[in-house]
Amino acid sequence: MTIKLNDRLRSLIQDEGPLDLATYMQICLTDPNHGYYTTKKPIGRKGDFITAPEISQLFGELIGIWIIDTWQKLGAPSPFYLIEAGPGHGTLMADILRTITKLSTPCAKAAYVRLIEISPTLKTMQKDKLSAFDIPLTWHENTDDIGDDAFILIANEFFDALPINQYQFVEGQWAERAIGLSPENTLTWGLKPSKFNTTLNPKLNDIFETSMSAQKIVADLSKRIKTQNGAALLIDYGHLKSGFGDTFQAIKNHAYANPLEDPGSADLTAHVDFDPFQQIAAKAGLRAKATTQGSFLLAMGLLERAGALGANLTTQQQEKIKTDVERLAAPEKMGNLFKVMTITRSDITPHGF
Ligand code: SAH
Fold it and tell me: Can you give the pLDDT at residue 3?
């Protein structure tokens, strides 16, 4: 199956020349017949990576509390769209719906869930997990398609799966990293001319990454937050200030893989640069606030909630909760690497920042 994608990429390069990284990522991840997200089961112990909601229910419960609070701050709009981009197994949304159903009947009654998902396999898993809730669910292919009403959008590990371009500073100018063919006709890295520039000061061979797809989504969301009344909570691994560095990686079976080998078989990701998101939001007259996942979860009451969850459990179960909490929030685990950004109207002060 993946052989076919390799052949297709090679003939595309033969016809059109080297591919920029964004095009390569887009094809490898989302090709309808051979793409990684469209055809594989990426998440979980048996998949290629594990995510925060799959580690502990506490993650989704705290986000559920954040949603109720934000919904109230938006003026309790009814109805409103509760949107998740890239819901994976549906675990995060299940934990959120359980929480809002328990803690705020008006919020749960007002919610219409919209799930943005390209994978048919994951859509089925999400349907199975979420149909038990008495809340309307619909599926959508992309974030352009989220309707005209008030909304709260959440995304965990969605933006890191969006295509990026990479530029490298060589011989006093910027060139774009591209994927071409070696003399043996295998996929190989190269450079092509580029008009890219940045105000940062590069050294020889420095690499700069940008994701136009991510920035386009944030610009569209910002416009909607302003005109439709809404808020967004974006969680991902990445950095709050733009800088140089190559963060592009392929992950297969919980280990690094060669991103040009067996295209379509590995998860391709890059760190999310939250810096341009902040600027896009500010330009739209909105407020973007950001912090680390660790500090967000602690401010949302992670430790108190963990204590309550463990109250009547065995020592062994309590130990498991403690390990999970550390994994989510400890600086040397996910706590610092993962960032949380919220985009809201500037008169709203979101919880947890
Ligand atoms: N949020 C989940 C899953 C993260 S994996 C969790 O935390 O467990 C990334 C998710 O985004 C998957 O559901 C994947 O199928 C989806 N996805 C990736 N690229 C996408 C795209 N371009 N459009 C829509 N969904 C996409």
Answer: 59
